[in-house]
Structures are given as C-alpha cells and as structure tokens.
Amino acid sequence: MFQSLSDLKQAVAKVYNSVNQEMYEIGVKRLRVDIIGSKIVILAEHRRIPGLKALDKVNRSVTRMLDVALLDENKKRLKAQFEAELGLKIKTVLKDYDPEHEVAATVAVLYEPLTEG
Predict the structure, then answer these.
(1) Rg (CA), the chain
(2) Which among 12, 87, 93, 106 is least buried, having the fewest CB atoms inside 10 angstroms?
(3) Is residue 117 part of a domain?
(4) Tens place of pLDDT per residue across the chain (117 aa)
(5) CB 110 within 8 Å of CB 1
(6) CATH of residue 50
(7) Number of compact structural domains in the chain
(8) pTM exceeding 0.85
C-alpha cells in the first residue's frame, strides 16, 4: 500500500492528528513517528484542554479519571482509523499522557512487522 516507511509515517501522523482534532478540536504541536519492527511509536506534544488544565490545579483525581476515559476513546478511534484508512492490522494501541508537560506516547502494536517496499 505504501511505497516506503517514510510515506507510512506521514500517513500515520496525518491520521493521528485528524483523530486528535476530531476529539479535542486542537491539533498537535509536534509529532514524531518511528517504526520499529511490528510497532509504530508516536511521541507528540499536545495542548492541554483549557478546562482540564484549570481543573488539574483544583482536583487532579477528577481530571485523571477524565484523562483515562479520553485516552481509552482515543485508542479505539486510532485503531479503527489506522485499520480503515491505512490498511494496517493492529493488535492493540497503548497510550499515555503527561498533562504537566503536555506529552503523549502512543504505541500501535501490529500483528506483523513492517518492512520497506
């Protein structure tokens, strides 16, 4: 489907940013995609949702629960979009987010390793 891993990385970045905009109406600040065997690793700098940022200072336990719920939904959407738009066979998507530094790490684990060509 893709002529090179570079093309795939660009397509992954586009899907990732699209899902982010769909869910949060905010694009990412920076994004890096690496492919390591059967794993797609995405590191991204995000803008914190302003309401959650304000609530973090008052009641972090509430925003932590919201973060987990948002991460779960984001992982479902990423998996579905990676499969539908890119034709990837995804085993699972793992994701975590550090609200203090506004950095997210996402790993999409595929059933088969990706190779050039």
Answers:
(1) 15
(2) 87
(3) no
(4) 678 899 999 999 999 999 999 999 888 999 999 999 999 999 999 988 888 989 999 999 999 999 999 999 999 999 999 999 999 999 999 999 999 999 999 999 999 998 765
(5) no
(6) 3.30.980
(7) 1
(8) yes
